[in-house]
Every structure is written in C-alpha cells, then in structure tokens.
C-alpha cells in the first residue's frame, strides 16, 4: 500500500494490524511483527500509529538507545461496545535491534519472556539483525521509500 505521509501510514497501520490479529490462529505466545526498511523509512512512525490506535497513553519514542520499550495498552472503548480483536493484548513492546550485534544480546534482555506471553504485542525494527530468534509465526512489514518521499508498505 502506498503512503504519501504519516497520516496515510496511520491508516495503513490500522488495516495491517487488523489483518495481523485476524490471521493469528494459535494462541501460543506473543504476536510478533518485524518492521523492515532503511534508516528513516518510517518504522518508528508506523509503530507510533499502532500505539495511538491501541490507546497507548505514553508518548512512543524511538527505542534505538534503550533497545526495548514497553507500553501499557488501554483501548479507548466506550462502555456497551463489544470488545475488539486487539483487546487481549495488555502490553505493546517496541524493540529496535539496530544496535544489536547478535541474537544473544536480545536474549539477555529477556526476549524469551517477552515472546512467550500471549498478552504481548511486539513490534521489532531491524529484525534481520536477530533473524535466528524470530519465531516462525512472526509477520513482517516491509517499508521502502521512493524518489518522491512516499512510502510503500507491504505486509507478509
Ligand atoms: N509516508 C510516510 N510514512 C512514514 N513516515 C514518513 C512518511 N513520509 C515522511 N515520513 C517521515 O520519515 C521519518 C521516518 O522516521 P522513522 O524514525 O519512523 O524511521 P525509522 O524507519 O524508524 O528509522 P530508523 O531505522 O532510524 O529507526 C519521520 O520523520 C516521518 O515523519
Ligand atoms: Mg526507528
């Protein structure tokens, strides 16, 4: 899908999230999404849109230096409306593997605990840096820019 700006990206993020949550058949462990794309492609911007959509109150900033950020999900559901797909998730994890040299570093930061909890929704930038420990059921979003500064987003 083509995104001309961050507002477009926010709409695409909603569509992709719904697809990801619907396609999740087994209930074992966290839901994990790898975000691939060059520096500045819009991986963090995408995650910020997801956080906003899920009702995360805290400001989502790039986890490049802290590697892992954990946010409480508070869905803005008015009373009387039925629970939505995303409601089983309690925490959004935003991980940036850019500065990691290998899988071991992420394992030391508690990766196994993060991905074994079904209440966790995990978005990870630079998943190719830790490809060996990405679970087989992980989904991937590919973001690429074009000469106009637009972004192309693909969900796989
Ligand atoms: N269509 C678009 N979608 C998303 N971001 C866009 C778009 N057009 C421009 N931008 C801008 O591009 C920048 C994307 O930066 P962002 O930090 O999200 O990239 P990133 O992929 O996370 O980079 P890094 O690999 O350095 O973490 C933001 O400043 C954002 O406003
Ligand atoms: Mg980023």
List the helices and strands and how they pair.
Layout: E1 2-3, H1 6-23, E2 31-36, H2 43-53, E3 68-72, E4 91-96, H3 103-108, H4 111-116, E5 120-125, E6 139-145, E7 151-155
Parallel strand pairs: 2-5, 2-6, 4-5
Antiparallel strand pairs: 1-7, 3-4, 6-7
Residues 43-44, 62, 96, 125 line the site of magnesium ion.
What report would you give on this structure?
By secondary structure, this protein is of the alpha/beta class. It has one domain: Rossmann fold (3-Layer(aba) Sandwich). The chain has four helices and seven strands. It has helices spanning 6-23, 43-53, 103-108, 111-116, and strands at residues 2-3, 31-36, 68-72, 91-96, 120-125, 139-145, 151-155. Strands 1-7-6-2-5-4-3 form a seven-stranded mixed beta sheet. The model has no long low-confidence stretch (mean pLDDT 92). The site of magnesium ion has 5 residues, from helix 2.
What separation lies between the terminal Cα atoms?
A: 12 Å
If helices are DSSP runs of H or I spanning 4 or more residues, what is the number of helices?
4
Overall tally of structural domains: 1
Shape: globular
Whole-number radius of gyration?
15 Å
> Can you list the ligands bound to this structure?
adenosine-5'-triphosphate, magnesium ion
């Amino acid at each position: 899908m083509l995104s001309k700006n961050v507002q477009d990206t926010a709409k695409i993020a909603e569509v992709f999230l719904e697809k990801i949550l619907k396609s999740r058949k087994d209930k074992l462990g966290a839901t994990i999404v790898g975000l691939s794309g060059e520096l500045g492609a819009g991986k963090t911007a995408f995650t910020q849109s997801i956080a906003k959509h899920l009702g995360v109150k805290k400001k989502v900033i790039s986890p490049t230096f802290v590697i892992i950020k954990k946010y409480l999900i508070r869905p803005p559901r008015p009373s009387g409306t039925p629970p939505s797909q995303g409601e089983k998730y309690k925490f959004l994890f935003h991980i940036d593997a850019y500065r990691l040299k290998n899988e071991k570093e992420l394992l030391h930061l508690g990766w196994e605990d993060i991905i074994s909890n079904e209440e966790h929704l995990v978005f990870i930038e630079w998943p190719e840096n830790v490809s060996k420990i990405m679970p087989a059921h992980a989904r991937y979003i590919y973001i690429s820019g074009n000469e106009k500064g637009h972004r192309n987003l693909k969900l796989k």
